[in-house]
Amino acid sequence: MFLFVTLHFAVALCPDASLPHLVKSWARSAREKDKQVCRSDVKWIGTLLYANAKMYERKVEGASGEIIRQKDIHSQLARTRSPLQICETGFNAGHSAVSWLLAAPHAKYQGFDAGELFHQYPRKNLELLQLLFGKERVQVEFGDSRRTLPGFAMRRTTNGTVFGKFVCD
Questions:
Q1: Any idea what the CATH number is for the domain that residue 42 is in?
Q2: Residue 165 has what pLDDT?
Q3: Do β-strands 166-168 and 108-113 pair in parallel, antiparallel, or remain unpaired?
Q4: What angle in degrees, to the nearest 10, is found between the helix axes of 95-103 and 122-133?
Q5: How far apart, in Å, do the first and last CA atoms of the chain sit?
Q6: Is 110 helix (H, G, I), strand (E, B) or coil?
Q7: What pLDDT is attached to residue 139?
Q8: Radius of gyration (Cα) for the chain, nearest Å?
Q9: Helix (H, G, I), strand (E, B) or coil at 166
Q10: Angle between the N-to-C axes of helices 68-81 and 95-103, in degrees from 0 to 180, rounded to the nearest 10
Q11: What is the pLDDT at residue 4?
C-alpha cells in the first residue's frame, strides 16, 4: 500500500504591476496577508505607481522611490523618532510616501499636493495606495499648500493633537 501526501503552500502572487487595473481589482478583494507581501516589494510598488500615473499623463515626474539615500534617511528617521504620523509636502506619484509607509509601518502618512493644478495622476495614485495600505494610513490634501498646510495645523491644534510625534519632510 502506498500513501501519497501532497503539500500545498499558499504563496501570494502579486498581480502584474504594469497593469494597474488588474492590481486595483485584486486589491479590492485580496487578503491583508497577500497585500502585505506585495506592498513590501518596493520595486513592484514603484512599477505600479509609475504605470498607473502613465495611464493619465505621458510625462511622470519624480520616482524618488529609486533614490537609495532618501529611503535610508526615511528609515533612520522612522527608527529614531517612531512617528505616529508623517507629513510631507509634495505627494506627486506617491513614491516617497511608500518609502515612509514602509519605514514606519505603524505611522499614518499625511501628504499635501497641488494635485490637478499640475498633474492628473496624484489623486489616482493616492486611491491605489489607499487600496494597498488602507485609507486610515494614507491621506493627502489636494490644493495650494499655502492654504492646506495652515488649515491642517489649525485642525490638529484645536483637536488637541501633539506635534511631537510628527516627522515632517
A1: 3.40.1380
A2: 42
A3: unpaired
A4: 20
A5: 67
A6: strand
A7: 96
A8: 18
A9: strand
A10: 40
A11: 56
Please state the pTM of the whole predicted model. Answer: 0.82
In a domain, 162, yes or no: yes
> E-assigned strands of 46-89?
85-89
Enclosing domain of residue 113: 20-168
User: Cell 532618501 maps to which residue?
Assistant: 70
Give dist(CA 48, CA 73) in Å, integer.
Answer: 23
Q: How many CB atoms lie within 10 A of CB 152?
A: 16
The count of structural domains within the chain is 1
Q: Which regions of the chain are under pLDDT 50?
A: 8-10, 160-167, 169
138 within some domain = yes
168 bridge partner residues: 87
pLDDT at 163: 46
Q: Is residue 69 part of a domain?
A: yes
Is 94 within the bounds of a domain? yes
From residue 35, give the alpha-carbon distance in Å to each of 21, 26, 98, 130, 142: 16, 9, 14, 11, 26
Residue holding cell 485609507?
135
